[in-house]
From TrEMBL, chains A, B:
Its EC number is 4.2.1.96. Keywords: Lyase. The keyword Acetylation does not apply. One of its GO terms (biological process) is tetrahydrobiopterin biosynthetic process. InterPro entries: PCD_sf, Pterin_deHydtase. GO terms for molecular function: 4-alpha-hydroxytetrahydrobiopterin dehydratase activity. This is Putative pterin-4-alpha-carbinolamine dehydratase.
């Protein structure tokens, strides 16, 4: 069972994500980011690769897509907040979106 | 340029969708439906096939996914409301989800 991030982990692992495009979600221990692409095909390509990573991690995003835009929210349901899995998936998504 | 559905088209083409799982969205000329699957892989399979249809029609959904659930909203941005493209994509999605 995943454990919520400690304060040290938040300072070391979460802070860099918050400094580079992710933000805390109001009223939830969750992070969110909007990814924008040139068109639907590019957005879908990103989502497909991210979906594979999510399934491999057995950790799935809350996300929505409108044409070239993908809005992602990450949190760990079982832990009712952010865990190392969210940090891992966020980093992989950032890498895939590059 | 897509034209908004006429009243006759709404009676003949939209009504069957509204009778079988789709509903009008409050405050918008749009329809929405929730699709539920056994797990993420099944949900993703549906989305992938629907994405191909959307790209072929050059008409894209607003949709979100959380694990096994896919929420879809359809409307035609250029027409500021429902057009024949929305009816077509809704029917294809229903078929894919079966």
């Amino acid at each position: 069972m995943a454990e919520k991030l400690t304060q040290t982990e938040r300072d070391e692992d979460l802070a860099p994500l918050l400094a580079s495009g992710w933000s805390m979600v109001d009223g939830r221990d969750a992070i969110a980011r909007r990814f924008e692409f040139r068109n639907f095909i590019e957005a879908w390509g990103f989502m497909t690769r991210a979906a594979m990573q999510a399934e491999k991690l057995n950790h799935h995003p809350e996300w929505s897509n409108v044409y070239n835009t993908v809005d992602v929210t990450l949190s760990t349901h079982d832990a009712d907040g952010l865990t190392a899995l969210d940090v891992k998936l966020a980093k992989r998504m950032d890498k895939l979106a590059k």
